[in-house]
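=== How it folds ===
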Amino acid sequence: MSDAAQAALLTARGLGKSFGAVRVLHDLDFEVRQGEVLGILGPNGAGKTTLFNLVSGDIRDHVGEIQFDGKALKGQPFDRCKAGIGRTYQIPQPYGGMSTFENLLVAATFGGGMSEAESYDHCVRILEDCELSQRANTNAGSLTLLDRKRLELARALASKPRLLLLDEIAGGLTDDEGKDLVALIRRIRDGGTTIVWIEHVLHALFAVADRLLVLNFGEKIAEGAPAVVIEDPEVKRVYMGVEA
């Protein structure tokens, strides 16, 4: 990330969310700078996916404020997608009755606001980048898990996001597949897209992330350079089960 790309694209202040008596996020402050890759770590139940749901609009009732590009983040998920926020889900959610290519066209036209002519060439390039060209006409409901993950990422990219939220996209991949994924995410970052990435496959995350944010029970316990954060005694205790 260049020194010029320092302005905050996404900012959260005092962010909190509870489901009944269960507090999932509490008084969370963080920012994501334009052009960087922020990795998010934390044990199961730390509030990571809830955080993504708040940013994407899948959940909208919360305490505190979220700003995107200096403005309060509001609206339904499709409004936020059109504003430039794309995301993937832990469990891929393709349109199972459509082909792989049709899935991308829907994302490009309705999510990215592109014309049919523009979206066609755009989606062809994404199919190539995500190694899905041979599956373009395959019904998305019959894809393997690996190809569904690739399609999940491709659909998010088809909407031309400025901010891309990746939710455990590397889970279930082999080492070689993970290397290909890391290379693709680097290309996405180098193209100017800001990325927030929840991931348990640490070597994949560490190969790309500029900073790490670590959560536990909905609270921030560490934030900073990956090499520094991973050596933090509290992070070792909470996330890796290593007592100092």
Remarks:
- Residues 14 and 232 are 24 Å apart (CA to CA).
